[in-house]
């Protein structure tokens, strides 16, 4: 499957549809070239590995007591360092990220994840290396 976004629920956007068509075309082109016996050289790619889901701060009654900090909003895939703001309480207090490494938050403040108690997902950047491949047919 291919998930392309961000796109608000119930909205069709031409730019997002175009991105989806392009990625599907690239996938189909790869399959065709592979099936024709083309060899693909080794490659390295940066990826983001999900480390943990982070919930909104809550009180003892399980009620949300802070919102995504404005400096974090719309910063998906951007580095988050120790001390950077994460949340802003309804009283105006900043809750900062406390971590021992740089993380890359994503799915920040997505409406579809509120009910799942997920404010964002912490990821780490890593590199994957693939060996060359060629169809054996």
From TrEMBL:
Entry GO terms, CC: cytosol
UniProt feature coiled coil, ranges: none
Domain AstE/AspA barrel-sandwich hybrid as annotated: residue spans: 44-123
Molecular-function annotations in GO: hydrolase activity, acting on carbon-nitrogen (but not peptide) bonds, in linear amides
Pfam family, one: AstE_AspA_hybrid
Name of the protein in its database record: ACY2 Aspartoacylase
